[in-house]
Amino acid sequence: xxxxxxxxxxxxxxxxxxxxxxxxxxxxxxxxxxxxxxxxxxxxxxxxxxxxxxxxxxxxxxxxxxxxxxxxxxxxxxxxxxxxxxxxxxxxxxxxxxxxxxxxxxxxxxxxxxxxxxxxxxxxxxxxxxxxxxxxxxxxxxxxxxxxxxxxxxxxxxxxxxxxxxxxxxxxxxxxxxxxxxxxxxxxxx
Length: 190
Prior knowledge:
It contains 2 helices and 12 strands, in the order βββββββαβββββα. It is mostly beta strands. The longest helix is centred in the middle third of the chain and has 11 residues, at 93-103.
């Protein structure tokens, strides 16, 4: 459900995990919802393995459709946001690897037509955004942290991992589920 995001892992890439219990599964990119103070989030794409930091021995390419004119950054597992400032001049594995190594960076970006390619040696949540327009004190949104557990028909499961959302004065728990993109049925307030 990642809106056309394309993930390319070059042939021969070695991946390592932060945890000995990682089963080798790499989740496909999925859309998630995040809020960043002072920024207007355009998209948030989670990729990797829940609960594990994955690192690669050569850069991986993540193509973000329609994001060529956006800023981009990532949120690590601890919730820390880092802007990707390294602009690359080439959109190839060897070129990106050379430029990232020379700059001492683990990630870089390059515009590809109207799209944005992110070259990275780790997986996490990648965020495209614009800087928010400054305004009065009433312009600062609030945030809510949302995590949803539910029953998938056979077992209890996490339906939405911990997600931070911008909230407005008229938001309700149901409107937050809408913002998070979850499918649900409202039955008598439950």
